[in-house]
Amino acid sequence: MKEMLLHALIRFMAPAWFGAALLIGTPSVYADLTTAVDLINARLERDTYTGIKITYSVSYLDCADGWPLEHYGETIMYGTRVLEVGNFSEDMTGIPFRLTHLVENPGEAYDRTPQLVRYFESFDGEKSQIFARNLFYDQCEKVAYEHNGYLDAGATVRVIRFDPIFQALYAGSNVGNQLVGSATRDPLKPTDRYGFTVTEKDGFPLAYKIELGDRWSLFSPEPELLVLDSNEAQRLVTKEVSYFVDKQFPKIGIYRSPSWSCEFEILNVVEASQQEGHQWFMDWPEGTTVVDGIGGGTDRVPFSSKSLSEIQRQVATNCGSVPVNSGRNWLLALNLILLISIPVVIVIGRLWRLRKMGSVS
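Below the sequence we write its predicted C-alpha cells.
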C-alpha cells in the first residue's frame, strides 16, 4: 500500500519548488487537509490557475540527445512565451489554452515586426492548432520557402508538456490533465495513512512535508499547494516568489528533469476574461502550409509576391549571388552578353570573309 501511494504521490506532484518567502497565516480552504492523501487530492482538484494569462521568458539548457523536443532545434529553446488558460465549460471536451512562443526578429527581410511568433499551439476545447515558423535571414542553401501549420481534432499538444510553467502550476491537477487531453483522475482513497502525516519544516511556516523512506517533498500552503522542494529527479528550484492577481507564483527559477532543464522568469500575469466566442486560434501567417488532420488534405496560405521577392533576394545575398527573379539583374546580364557577343560575331564574320576571298583567288 505504501508503494502504491508513493507512486501516486510522485505522479501527481510532478514539479518541485523552493523559496524563502512563503505565505504566512493563510486560512485553509480545505477543511480536511490533515494527511498526505488529503493534500494530493486537494492538488488534484484545484483550479487556482485558470482564467489567467502568463507572460514569461524561457531558456532551455542541459538537453540530452533525443529529448522529446529535439527535432524543433532552436525554434523553442529561447524567447518569451505567453500562456493563456481558460475555464472549463460543459460544452467543451477540455480546458482551452493558447501557448505563444515569441523571439526577437533576427533580421527577416520580408517581416520587420520587432517580435516574431516562432511557435504557437492552442486548444479551443474541441480541436487544436499548431504553427512553427521557419527563418530565412541566414539561409543560403535552396530551401522551401514556407512555414508549417497543423490542424487536428482534440488536444494535439507538443510543447506545453515540456513547459516549465505548465509543470509548476498545472502538472498534478485535473486542470493540467484537461489541458493536454489526458483523462481526469479520481481522488485517492485514504485507506492507509501510515507514514504520510503532513508536517512542518523549520524556516517554512505552514509548509507541508511528506516523507516516505529516503524520499520527501515540501508543499506551500493552501490554496496554491505548490511543490516547494523535493529530492525527486524532476524538481523545480525557485529563486524568487511574487504575487500576481492575488496568487502566489514562482517568479524566477529552473525546472530540471533527467533529459532537459529550463530556466524561466515570470514577467507578468493578468486575469483573462474569455467571453463567448473568444478566439483561441491565430490566423495562419502568410507562407504557411497547413496539414488538415480533420478534413484531410493540405492547404497553403501563399507569401505575397513582395514578401517572396524579399526572401529570395536575402537568400541570394547570403549565397553571394543575385536573385533569379530580379528583372533589373536579368537586363544587366543580357546587356553584358550582347557587349561580349557582338565583337565576337564581327571578328568571326571578317575571318570568314577573308577565308572566302582567299579561296576565290
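DSSP finds six helices and 15 strands in the chain.
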